[in-house]
Amino acid sequence: MFETVVVATDGSESVKRAVDVGLDLANRFDATVYALSVIDAGEVDASPEQLREELETALETHADAALATVEERASLNLTTEVREGRPAHEICSYARDIDADLVVTGTRGRHGENRLLLGSVAERVVRTSPVPVLTVRQLQPVAEGDSSAESAESDSISA
Predict the structure, then answer these.
(1) Taking Cα atoms as reference points, which of 142, 108, 129, 126 lies closest to residue 16?
(2) Taking the CA atoms of the chain, what radius of gyration do you get in angstroms?
(3) Which CATH number is associated with domain 4-154?
(4) For residue 141, what pLDDT band results from cuts at 50, 70 and 90?
(5) Which of 37, 114, 148, 158 is spaced 20 to 30 A from 58 at the CA atom?
(6) Quick one: three-class SS letters along 16-28?
(7) What CDD domains has UniProt attached to this entry (predicted)?
(8) What share of the chain has pLDDT > 70, as a percent?
(9) What is the SS3 assignment for 93?
């Protein structure tokens, strides 16, 4: 069903679960995994000119670290890539370029957008992706005795 899966990551805490779900899904379907991290060109362009080079270097280092985390978590071979541009556009473009069957992304990213259901990047990817998109929300830590514990557990993938 899925032969090629793109796992989009920005290295944030909220994306870790999406990475795990994407890798698990790829394992189950024996799919090829492509991990992608996008340096937001808008973030670089919006910074003061004297800081742009330093910011871009820091964002490249962060993207490399995000992909290294995916590689550490993966029990299968994967291809990694860092791109620069508008994140949603680059994720969809990459999915087209490699003829992906699925894109997996978190619902909130590094900036932790305060959107009702999805972060702005995830929403744009869902709207513009040429292939199906699996968005994975981060589960909130469950306090002892919390009645929502059952719903948090039922939100995980089952085989």
Answers:
(1) 108
(2) 16
(3) 3.40.50.12370
(4) low
(5) 114
(6) HHHHHHHHHHHHH
(7) USP-like
(8) 79
(9) helix
